[in-house]
Amino acid sequence: MKFRVADRSLSVKIITSIVILVCLSLFIFSDRNTFLLIMGSLFAILIIGAYFLAPASYQIIDNNLVIWKNFGRKDFPNITQCSTIKEKESFTLRVFGNGGLFAGTGIFWNKKHGIFRAYVTSGKLSDLVYLNTDKGKVIISPVNPEAFVEYWEKFR
Length: 156
Fold this sequence. Notes:
By secondary structure, this protein is of the alpha+beta class. The chain has one domain (1-156). It has 3 helices and 10 strands, in the order E-H-H-E-E-E-E-E-E-E-E-E-H. The strands form 2 sheets. It has a 6-stranded mixed sheet with strand order 5-9-10-8-7-6, covered by helices on one side. A 4-stranded antiparallel sheet has the order 1-2-3-4, covered by helices on one side.
């Protein structure tokens, strides 16, 4: 069973809109300015890459987490723990990745979980699910976190 991603949070929508507007502005004002044209092209490549890497849905297959992206998939074998996140996370630092263009994806760190990967479209606490797998810790944002956890508990 595939679980859709949660609706994009306001912060993700704002960041995405700003980056797209900056890209469009660079192209609009690039008339006879090669630097702005190059910058606009780089922004366009960044936008396309972030879109392709953003999660589209989540699935549990034989106790493995599969994250379906807009292009491709990412597998995390052998889920050992799966739970909704009930309490506010401490300060979280993005180590490497995308912090809000279409989604929050990449490698993050906080005091509670240490190093973990995130594939979220919403930062709302009520949308987040924490998983521990053989490949590491993962936080995702399915449209119905409780149903996702119940599905894992039922079939593990």
